[in-house]
Amino acid sequence: MSTSSTPTSFELIAFIGGGNMASAIIGGLLRQGRSPGSILVVDPGEAARERLATQGLRTQAAPDEALRAASLVVWAVKPQQFKDAAASTAALATQALHYSVMAGLRTEDMARLLGTQRIARAMPNTPALVGQGITGLFARAQVTDAERAAIEALVRPTGQALWVGQESDLDAVTALSGSGPAYVFYFIEAMVQAAADMGLSPEQGRVLALATFAGATSLASQSEDSPATLREKVTSKGGTTYAALTTLENAGVKASFIEAMRAAQKRAGELGDEFGR
Ligand SMILES: NC(=O)C1=CN([C@@H]2O[C@H](COP(=O)(O)OP(=O)(O)OC[C@H]3O[C@@H](n4cnc5c(N)ncnc54)[C@H](OP(=O)(O)O)[C@@H]3O)[C@@H](O)[C@H]2O)C=CC1
Ligand SMILES: O=C(O)[C@@H]1CCC=N1
């Protein structure tokens, strides 16, 4: 691994793509006091640019000379959009460190199109917006220790960072924490719907469901008990939880859930394969 002298902070960060994930990361950065003027977002969508500009960010419909000043380029377009975006950006960003949040797309394919090996890849998630995200990180060997530290410092305001040893592990991270917030929202939706069926108001259902998720998550992180033991402690013999969990088991919900996550991991691999072809 190279150890050459490198910047330890990124004075100007350019986001290529200003959609959901970019907005979540930017929101986390702004919340922690990063100056909006130190963030430049390239996005062809007028509505997206207007939304970002109202936060004080610099925006461009297509990359121009201003991009040359960016020391970090964050790739936040959909994997299928990367090839076109790279074609218009690569020559303007030869000095920058590149940081991709795109699912599946492999750094060796990015390196080929960008003409640089200085690429780190991440899998963040949308709770970054409220500083409670978790980001899986991987960097090519050409990324220096100082740059890795700078990336970690960038991620920290948005939540936790977790380095993985091999790039392919990011596909599993994608299936777990990248897509994971959607699974949680799906459960919350189901709980709120059931609450309404049982006669509670939507607001009561929402408050109860959210507090239950937050409380259970806090308990699981603070307790020495495993999630399985914590579950058993809720499940009184012959009681209500037993009735509910038996229904879930009989319907194969756990097996389906594991299968669903494997489908997400497989899809991440396919996105990489489709691009590498
Ligand atoms: N959403 C999430 O929870 C997560 C997403 N990711 C990754 O983040 C990336 C972005 O996802 P997400 O934010 O959800 O997607 P979005 O579609 O919300 O954002 C992508 C943005 O990029 C714009 N865009 C398209 N082409 C270009 C271009 N050539 N140059 C600049 N901008 C362009 C799109 O415009 P238009 O809409 O007009 O096409 C859109 O505004 C994906 O690669 C995804 O895998 C990773 C972790 C979690
Ligand atoms: O659904 C997707 O493909 C992206 C990656 C992880 C979350 N959203």
From TrEMBL:
Pathway: Amino-acid biosynthesis; L-proline biosynthesis; L-proline from L-glutamate 5-semialdehyde: step 1/1. It is found in: Cytoplasm. NADP(+) binds at I16, G17, G18, G19, N20, M21, A76, V77, K78, P79. GO terms for molecular function: pyrroline-5-carboxylate reductase activity. Residues 167-271 form the Pyrroline-5-carboxylate reductase dimerisation domain. Catalyzes the reduction of 1-pyrroline-5-carboxylate (PCA) to L-proline. NCBIfam families: proC. This is Pyrroline-5-carboxylate reductase.
